[in-house]
Amino acid sequence: MTRRQLRERIFKMLFRVEFYENEEIPEQLGAFLDDEEPIAEEDARYIEEKFLKIKELIPSMDEQINASVKGWKTTRMSKVDLAIIRLAYYEMKYDDDVPNPVAINEAVELAKIFGTDESPAFINGVLAKLS
């Protein structure tokens, strides 16, 4: 599976965080991995590990996002945009394997697929302030 495909699946799992209680997340992760097309064990492990790391950091990342973006709070952002921003911000700040320009570009690409017409520009602007 390509990095882009892995990233898309992590985004989809992060999106679910907004709709389920913490106790339900392990079950949701299992259901998500079962529902997707067959995934190699190594890829499933990568998705799960990265998702859980990001999920753990959501409160502190949201604080940093809120402090950086004037006129917007994470509570006002669309759930799709927020999941993409969280994923990209994690990659920019905590994942040494992903250069910042790549994280931003991949976030914009996800926004083009899953977001609104305004999402790519909005996400690019937020991430530029965070980099």
Summarize the structure.
This protein has 131 residues and is mainly α. It has six helices and no strands.
Question: How would you characterize the overall build of this protein?
Answer:
- This protein is mainly α and 131 residues long.
- It has one domain: NusB-like (N-utilizing Substance Protein B Homolog, Chain A), CATH 1.10.940.
- 74% of the residues lie in helices and 0% in strands.
- It contains 6 helices and no strands.
- The chain has helices spanning 3-17, 25-35, 41-68, 79-94, 100-114, 119-130.
- The longest helix is centred in the middle third of the chain and has 28 residues, at 41-68.
- It is globular, with a radius of gyration of 14 Å.
- The two termini are 28 Å apart.
- The model has no long low-confidence stretch (mean pLDDT 89).
Topology:
Blueprint lengths: L2 H15 L7 H11 L5 H28 L10 H16 L5 H15 L4 H12 L1
Order of helices and strands: HHHHHH
Residue-averaged pLDDT: 89
Shape: globular
Beta-strand percent range: under 5%
**Number of separate domains:** 1
Keywords:
6 helices, 131 residues, mainly alpha, N-utilizing Substance Protein B Homolog, Chain A
